[in-house]
């Protein structure tokens, strides 16, 4: 396969010409000797040591077309690039810039033509292409000396799954990752506690209990308005998804996981080969059972039809929906108004009493250095500098609505501990209980925890271990800005801290040659078939037809390509 075919590029010839122009060649870069650190620089100072001579780094720039550039500045010459030059002696040069929407395509074209920048921010597919064609250099010899303690903490927090993403087959570190929050990929059941109380019901934990409670929410007037206008389980709208990789607000992923079905995931079989979750017998079983819930009126009859699932949710018409911890932000208005008391649980449990959940990718953003880059440690310094100063810049006014770090800081990614939300939940719980004080917490790797601890003191009422809506101070002005986050952490993340779950990771996140041409059609066929079965427009036997068609129309070839790639 030719190099340029590893990345899917669907564009006109004119667009290709316009995008590829400006992809600076790597061959003439890096011919100079690498700039060394100042003589006598202590090892502990290396992560943020200023070079004795200017180090110029060539990047590709992602420009937000809606960002306002202050007068006297530009994308390449602004507050952040000036600080890098002043304090680290790093001069940033953009070989090219592309809009946020065009950046990935521009980077893919540069990879395909072997004209990559020295240091670059790439997605997972691009990273694997760079690895496959030996276009980037190992970074492990720089990691120990140049990664700051905070950055090391973030990388370590991702555990073994993150390490698998950033190391090659020889065990060499090939990228600096921005870890995804573990909690962000775990979908859980959100349920109205006030509706349970009104009907005298317990929190459902099994499939049958969930079906019973959801039916009661539909038929027993839980909101007490005398109308038949409530929804048991809210489903995805016409712009949402029944299944997804990672966090999927309003999707039905936990209903599938109850039967250990993981649509859209590539799964490792007992013999070590990779299989596709959507075509497994467990998925057929899940679809059959979910369709029964729909037929019984337990699942929103307007699933995949309504334009916005938030509308009935915010109108107080929904008893149950599925999504990650951050869904507390989605229903924040109902929390602040005191009209809905939402709780989160790992439900429904599988027949063996365990909660199975698919996980998000450990990272989707990688910073890498080309083979020709003479100062790859500069990538660590740029990232270290961001981590060390991002919060301070907000306080000092360097970061503002006009000069956001996400829009202007070179190689920008959001860096945090993968388990930051769980850590915050545990710290706040201990703080409220009086087991720790703020002096006991090292905030250097926890960007928002100090603010959370200050806010929870004002917003949480006694008893501190009861997170019912009535025990929050809803009248405080601080509630408008801080309460949704605190509810997300203390209520939304409670299952991840207090309950056990079995994580299931995607065994493959790449893109094969056949996927480039056929994946969009295969995915569309899958989504349409699943929707028809669930909504009663097709018999469950349609699943077998789907599996046969999926295999014949490229699926088997894709599986072969994936297994061949992973076996090398």
From TrEMBL:
<dbReference type="Pfam" id="PF01547">
    <property type="entry name" value="SBP_bac_1"/>
</dbReference>
<keyword id="KW-0564">Palmitate</keyword>
<keyword id="KW-0762">Sugar transport</keyword>
<feature type="signal peptide">
    <location>
        <begin position="1"/>
        <end position="26"/>
    </location>
</feature>
<keyword id="KW-0472">Membrane</keyword>
<protein>
    <submittedName>
        <fullName>ABC-type sugar transport system, periplasmic component</fullName>
    </submittedName>
</protein>
<dbReference type="InterPro" id="IPR006059">
    <property type="entry name" value="SBP"/>
</dbReference>
<dbReference type="InterPro" id="IPR050490">
    <property type="entry name" value="Bact_solute-bd_prot1"/>
</dbReference>
<keyword id="KW-0449">Lipoprotein</keyword>
<keyword id="KW-0813">Transport</keyword>
<keyword id="KW-1003">Cell membrane</keyword>
<keyword id="KW-0732">Signal</keyword>
């Amino acid at each position: 396969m030719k190099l340029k075919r590893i990345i899917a590029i669907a564009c006109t010839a004119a667009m290709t010409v316009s995008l590829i122009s400006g992809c600076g060649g790597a061959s003439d870069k890096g011919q100079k000797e690498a700039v060394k650190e100042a003589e006598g620089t202590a090892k502990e100072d290396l992560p943020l040591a200023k070079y004795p001579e200017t180090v110029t780094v060539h990047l590709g720039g992602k420009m937000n077309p809606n960002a306002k550039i202050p007068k006297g500045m530009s994308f390449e010459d602004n507050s952040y690039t000036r600080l890098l030059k002043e304090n680290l002696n790093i001069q940033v040069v953009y070989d090219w810039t592309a809009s946020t929407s065009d950046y990935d395509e521009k980077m893919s074209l540069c990879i395909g033509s072997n004209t990559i920048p020295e240091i670059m921010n790439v997605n997972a597919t691009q990273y694997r292409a760079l690895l496959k064609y030996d276009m980037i250099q190992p970074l492990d010899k720089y990691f120990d000396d140049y990664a700051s303690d905070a950055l090391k903490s973030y990388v370590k927090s991702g555990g073994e799954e993150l390490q698998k993403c950033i190391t090659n087959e020889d065990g060499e570190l090939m990228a600096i990752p921005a870890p995804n929050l573990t909690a962000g990929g775990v979908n859980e059941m959100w349920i109205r506690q006030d509706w349970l109380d009104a009907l005298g019901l317990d929190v459902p934990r099994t499939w049958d209990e969930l079906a019973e409670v959801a039916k009661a929410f539909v038929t027993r007037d839980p909101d007490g308005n005398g109308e038949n206008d409530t929804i048991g389980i809210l489903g995805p709208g016409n712009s949402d998804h029944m299944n997804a990789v990672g966090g999927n607000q309003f999707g039905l992923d936990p209903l599938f996981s109850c039967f250990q079905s993981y649509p859209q995931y590539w799964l490792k079989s007992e013999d070590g080969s990779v299989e596709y979750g959507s075509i497994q017998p467990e998925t057929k079983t899940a679809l059959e059972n979910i369709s029964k819930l729909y037929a019984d009126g337990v699942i929103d009859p307007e699933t995949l039809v309504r334009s916005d699932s938030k509308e009935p949710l915010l109108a107080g018409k929904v008893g149950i929906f599925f999504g990650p911890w951050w869904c507390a932000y989605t229903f924040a208005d109902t929390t602040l108004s005191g009209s809905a008391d939402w709780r989160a649980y790992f439900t429904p449990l599988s027949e063996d009493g365990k909660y199975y959940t698919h996980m998000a990718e450990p990272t989707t953003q990688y910073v890498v250095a080309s083979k020709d880059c003479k100062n790859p440690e500069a990538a660590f310094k740029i990232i270290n500098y961001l981590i060390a100063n991002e919060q301070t810049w907000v306080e000092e006014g360097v970061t503002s609505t006009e000069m956001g770090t996400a829009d202007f800081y070179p190689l920008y990614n959001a860096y945090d501990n993968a388990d930051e939300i769980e850590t915050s939940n545990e710290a706040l719980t201990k703080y409220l209980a009086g087991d720790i004080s703020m002096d006991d917490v090292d905030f250097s790797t926890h960007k928002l925890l100090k603010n959370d601890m200050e806010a929870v003191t004002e917003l949480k009422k006694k008893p501190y271990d009861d997170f019912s809506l009535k025990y929050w101070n809803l009248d405080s002005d601080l509630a408008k800005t801080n309460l949704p986050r605190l509810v997300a952490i203390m209520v939304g993340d409670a299952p991840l801290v207090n309950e056990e779950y079995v994580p299931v990771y995607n065994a493959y996140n790449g893109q094969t040659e056949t996927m480039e041409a056929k994946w969009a059609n295969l995915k569309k066929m899958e989504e349409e078939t699943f929707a028809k079965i669930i909504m009663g427009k097709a018999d469950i036997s349609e699943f077998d037809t789907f599996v046969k068609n999926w295999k014949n129309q490229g699926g088997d070839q894709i599986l072969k390509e994936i297994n061949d790639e992973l076996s090398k």
